[in-house]
Amino acid sequence: MNEITEFIRNRRSVVIRNLTNQPVPQADLDLIIDCGIRVPDHAVLAPWRVVVILPAQACHLGTTILAPEFKRLNPDATEAMLTFEEGRFTRTGAVIAVLSCPQQHPKIPVWEMQLSAGAVCQNLLSSALALNYGAQWVTEWYAYNDKLLRALGGNPETDKFAGFIYIGTKNEDPKERRRPDKKDVVSYYTA
Ligand SMILES: Cc1cc2nc3c(=O)[nH]c(=O)nc-3n(C[C@H](O)[C@H](O)[C@H](O)COP(=O)(O)O)c2cc1C
C-alpha cells in the first residue's frame, strides 16, 4: 500500500449538506479540472464537456430554470421548495456539471464515450477529495431536465448529464458507508 492506493481505498464523499459555499480558489479549481479531464478516452474524442457553476452565477440558473422547471413538474410545490431550487447551485463553493457529449464515430461505440464521461466525474470527485475538500457526485432531478441541459451547452438529442460534482470545504468529516463485500461482486474466472 502506498499513499495513493491508501487514498483511493479510503476516500469518501461528503454529502452536500455538510459542505459550505466558501469560494474554491481558482488555482484549486484549475488543478481539479486538469485532473478531472485526464481520463481514458478511446480515440481521443473528448466526448464530454465540463461546465463550472460558481455561486455568483448560480442564482441565475436557479431563478430562470431550476425553480420554474420544478414548479412545472411539481405544481403543488411550496414557496420554501421553490426558494430552495433558486439557491440549489449556491449550496457549495463550486458545482461542476459534466455533460456526456458522444459523437458519431465509425469505430467507437457511444457507450464507450459515455463511460469516459463517468471517468471525468470520478476524477473530479477524487481530486477534490485529495485536496481535502468535501465533494459529492449527484444527479438529482435536474440532471434529466432538457432545459438545463440546453442552457449548459448540451443537445438533448444526443447529450446527457453524467453528473454534478459539488465541491466545498467540509463542515464535518464523513462516516464510513456500507460497502459491498468483495466476495459478492468479485470472482476469478476459472476455465
Ligand atoms: C451517477 C451517480 C449519481 C448519483 N446521484 C446521487 C443523488 O442524486 N443524490 C445522492 O444522494 N447521491 C447520489 N449519488 C451517490 C453519492 O454521490 C455517492 O455515490 C455516495 O455518497 C457514496 O460515495 P463515496 O463512495 O465517494 O463515499 C450518485 C452516484 C452516482 C455514481
Q: Your description of this structure?
A:
- The protein has helices at 3-10, 26-36, 55-73, 79-86, 110-130, 146-151, 182-185; strands at residues 48-53, 94-100, 134-138, 160-168.
- The chain is an alpha+beta fold and 191 residues long.
- The protein has a domain at 13-55 and 89-170: 3-Layer(aba) Sandwich (NADH Oxidase), CATH 3.40.109.
- A 4-stranded antiparallel β-sheet has the order 1-2-4-3.
- α2 (26-36) runs antiparallel to α5 and α3 runs antiparallel to α4.
- It is globular and about 60 Å long.
- The chain starts with a helix and ends in a 6-residue tail after the last helix.
- The mean pLDDT is 97.
- The site of flavin mononucleotide has 9 residues, from β3.
- Residues 12-13, 136-140, 163, 177 line the site of flavin mononucleotide.
User: What profile does the largest beta sheet have?
Assistant: 4 strands, antiparallel
Average pLDDT works out at 97
Helix content: 40-55%
Bound molecules: flavin mononucleotide
Q: Which of globular, elongated, flat, extended, rod-shaped describes the shape?
A: globular
Q: Based on the structure given, which CATH architecture of the domain at 13-55 and 89-170 is correct?
A: 3-Layer(aba) Sandwich
- Strand runs, count: 4
CATH fold category name of the domain at 13-55 and 89-170: NADH Oxidase
* Class from secondary-structure proportions: alpha+beta
In the CATH hierarchy, what is the class of the domain at 13-55 and 89-170?
Alpha Beta
What share of the residues does DSSP label as strand, in percent?
5-15%
**Alpha plus pi helix count:** 7
Termini gap: 30 Å
CATH superfamily of the domain at 13-55 and 89-170: NADH Oxidase
